[in-house]
Automatic annotation (TrEMBL):
Lineage: Bacteria, Bacillati, Actinomycetota, Actinomycetes, Pseudonocardiales
One cellular component (GO) term of this entry: cytosol
EC number annotated for this UniProt entry: 2.7.4.25
Sequence segments annotated as region (Disordered): 164-198
PANTHER family per UniProt: CYTIDYLATE KINASE, CYTIDYLATE KINASE/PANTOATE-BETA-ALANINE LIGASE
Keywords attached to this entry: ATP-binding, Cytoplasm, Kinase, Nucleotide-binding, Transferase
Protein known as: Cytidylate kinase
Residues that hold ATP according to the record: G14, P15, S16, G17, T18, G19, K20, S21, T22
Reaction catalyzed: dCMP + ATP = dCDP + ADP; CMP + ATP = CDP + ADP
A Gene Ontology molecular function term of the record: CMP kinase activity
Compositionally biased residues, Basic and acidic residues: 176-193
HAMAP family referenced in this protein's UniProt entry, alphabetically: Cytidyl_kinase_type1
Enzyme class label: transferase
Domain Cytidylate kinase: 10-227
Natural source organism: Actinophytocola oryzae
Length: 239
């Protein structure tokens, strides 16, 4: 695997609809870095739980599914695959059934501990192979990669996030009204921020970036400037 420009970890956190996934992938490509979508891992486990017919409030059975699931995630930003038992479920994990259930599954503390440990191993492996990785999620800067060289907390108004989600859903063939999407965005915010295990919150040393009035390129420009300010390109001290 070819060494990229980035040295270390960039942690991108924030609620649904802030553009984390698109920004993280584009940033990883531009820096020749690895990419990890931790939310996709929770969604894949949630899909496995639903396929197993397990109730999402049965924490013991949910954990059993998570412990035995055959899950593989790509760290190549240009060729994303989420494999469940060898099946690419990248589209299915974005569906309504998983979206409604993922907060409950991801709130199970032992499931989070299991996946966080795996995420940490992936980060270490990719940094060793490629030099750096862009990681997105809701607890990256606080739990998964607390020593990241750059932590960015993306935020936006709930209306802006709902509009973006609506556009994403429509582009993927998933139709829902703006009001329905906004209700779901607000629901996810409450659940993710209120859970006991690794709640959604910015790290103390995170840079806040409001994307409400920024387009994709504007967000990328802001983060790229931070990368250069932190001297995270090329040969850095300790590498």
């Amino acid at each position: 695997m070819q060494l990229g420009e980035l040295r270390g970890v960039i942690a991108l956190d924030g609620p649904s609809g802030t553009g984390k996934s698109t920004v993280a992938r584009r940033l990883a490509v531009s820096l020749g870095a690895g990419y990890l979508d931790t939310g996709a891992m929770y969604r894949a486990v949630t899909l496995a739980v639903l396929r197993a017919g397990v109730a999402t409030d049965d924490e013991h059975e949910v954990l059993t599914v998570a412990e035995h699931v055959d899950l593989r995630v790509s760290t190549d930003a240009e060729h994303q695959e989420i494999l469940l038992g060898g099946e690419n479920v990248g589209s299915e994990i974005r569906g309504q059934a998983v979206t409604l259930a993922v907060s409950a599954v991801s709130a199970v503390a032992p499931v989070r501990a299991l996946l966080v440990a795996r995420q940490m191993r992936i980060i270490d492996e990719v940094c060793e192979q490629r030099g750096g990785i862009v990681v997105e999620g809701r607890d990256i800067g606080t739990v998964v990669a607390p020593d990241a060289g750059l932590k960015v907390y993306l935020t936006a108004s709930s209306d802006a996030r709902a509009r973006r989600r609506s556009l994403q859903d429509s582009a993927s063939g998933r139709e829902a009204s703006f009001d329905e999407v906004k209700q779901d965005v607000d629901r996810r915010d409450r659940l993710d921020s209120g859970r006991a295990a690794s709640p959604l919150q910015p790290a103390d040393d995170a840079v806040w970036l409001d994307t409400t009035h920024l387009d994709l390129q504007g967000v990328l420009d802001e983060i790229t400037a931070l990368v250069d300010e932190r001297d995270l390109r090329g040969v850095a001290a300790g590498w």
